[in-house]
Amino acid sequence: MGRDKWDEACNSFPDYYLNHSSYFLRYLELSFSVRNYSFGIFDDSLNEWVALCPVFIENATFGNETFASLSIGGGPLPIPLVRKKRGLNQYKRDFERVMDSLNVIYDQYRVARVLYKTYAMTTSGLPTTQAEFFFPLSQSFSLLPCSNFIADLTQPKEILEDRLSKSHAKKIKVSQTKGQTVLAIDSSSNHQLIDLEFEAYKRAHILASGRQTRPDESFNSMRLLIHSGIGVLFVTKLGQQGLSYLYCDTRGKMARGWSQANDKNAEKEHSPRHFLEWSAMLYFKSRGVSFYEIGSRAIPAQFGVDFNEKLVGISDFKERFGASEYPEAFFEKILDPKLSLILGQERLSRLIGAKNEIH
Prior knowledge:
- The protein is α+β, with helices and mostly antiparallel strands.
- 40% of the residues lie in helices and 28% in strands.
- The protein has 11 helices and 15 strands.
- It has helices at 3-10, 22-31, 88-108, 157-163, 166-177, 191-209, 216-228, 264-270, 273-286, 310-319, 337-358, and strands spanning 35-36, 39-43, 48-53, 56-62, 65-70, 77-78, 81-82, 111-118, 142-152, 181-185, 231-238, 241-251, 254-262, 291-296, 324-334.
- Strands 1, 4, 5, 6, 8, 9, 10, 11, 12, 13, 14 and 15 form a 12-stranded mixed β-sheet that branches. The chain has a 3-stranded antiparallel β-sheet with strand order 2-3-7.
């Protein structure tokens, strides 16, 4: 299915999320070594889409073993979109039809693990309905709850400011007092400026990571999204020096921070990150976007979800913007007994370790 047709199908589902869009799936495909078997189901008799199913299969290593996994970079794919407008019973039948199609793929490619995720908010600015949180359970998926911080940009600026933590409000004010500014690079920007600042972001990202974490084609797809009006790159400046970079994408009523990198030398001295995220929120608010996704909460003892200690500090940073916390869920199915044993041992060890640290 071509990208235009995929997006046309996406638009027929009011609950589709940014990650369902062809541009983001294409970015993922360019970023990781995967095989793409995504498909849609169309009802000719009613002339409407029944379902849209992102399907990437990769080789994933657990312990010392390699398994076929329906996932992306070890993380989740967006859960299939299934039509809801014909009632709950029809939704259940359609969902089971999708699962039957996926089971054929699992068998054909000897898939050992399946990992999907539901998201808190749709691109139309509506909370995800509860159906997604229950029907996968009937198909032997395990539910792993999580959450996401999302700011309501329809509120007055004064309310958003009041919800900031005292430390965040102080650091934002200090950045402004020191003369920091935030440059928004979007589709209205000069094309040479877009390319120049994006290259600076890419360099900062590579330096911050210690290596180039994804191919040039992946970065290039992000740069082109700025030209097309989907991506926006925010840059904290002190004079002509770029201190911090935040890449966002937006569609419909939603926007989110996608990728971020700091100049390591400037990070401790100038603390530019707080002012940068705040400026992005105000930018999207001024353009009629209703919700801004700041990011997920990280919980050390959360059973079954990949975790590293660095995420706790990032999670705390996100929470201090005062956004509301919305429920999301991972859905996982383990189809290989050997993998089930490996993951069970790894996760139990991490859970016990996290609980010991808490006590």
